Amino acid sequence: MRPVPRWTLLSSGCAPVLLAGGWTIAALLEGPAYDPATQTISVLAAYGAAGFWVMTGAFVALGVCHLLTAWGLRAAALPGRAALGGGGVAALVVALLPAPSSGGSLRHGAVAVVGFTLLAVWPLLAADRGGSAPWGLRPVPCVVATALMALGAGWFLIEMQSHGAAGVAERAVTCLQSLWPLVVVASCLRHPDNGHRRR
Predict the structure, then answer these.
(1) Backbone angles phi, psi at 51, to 5 degrees
(2) Residue-wise over 52-88: b if at least 16 C-beta within 10 A, else e?
(3) Rounded Cα distance, 146 and 128, in Å
(4) Beta-carbon neighbour count of residue 198 at 10 Å?
(5) Residue 171 has pLDDT above 90, yes or no
(6) DSSP 8-state class, residue 198
(7) What average pLDDT score do residues 11-26 get?
(8) How far is CA 152 from CA 34, 168, 186, in A?
(9) Cβ–Cβ < 8 Å for 137, 146
């Protein structure tokens, strides 16, 4: 197994913290007019939103974290690393193409869908079929992670169509998608073949 550098623990660990911190602070700045249960995260990064710069900064930071993690996660299969990096690029593009203050945006929505998809399939694409792979890169956990992310994305689409708890569904999916790289990195660093273990 190719060694995974310890700094990937920082890049993967910062991703969920910065994302959740960004939407929490941006929602506080927006005030009671924003309903986190029914409104999406993109509303917080829309032009004219009180927390525009906070949420935009969180998307940029998330993208950079995913790109760095994909670069350092050398134990994962290359297609999975590429998909994780692509998810990071999508987060950067979402920051560059914020949703309008009212109504939808086809460009913003299309990039968000691409990002969701790449981050949902990367665990499956990163799986190592070898018997000695770290836990986070074994086929069964990878299939389960991808399946949960796909189900979460389906839930989000249903809530969007029914004007229900879209904010809750989106946060659940994005939390899982931002946490899984940390799980994989931690399992790689704990694996005896990582090469960074203490002797």
Answers:
(1) -100, 25
(2) bebbbbbbbbbbbbbbbbbebbebbbeebbbbbbbbb
(3) 15
(4) 3
(5) yes
(6) -
(7) 97
(8) 22, 10, 23
(9) no
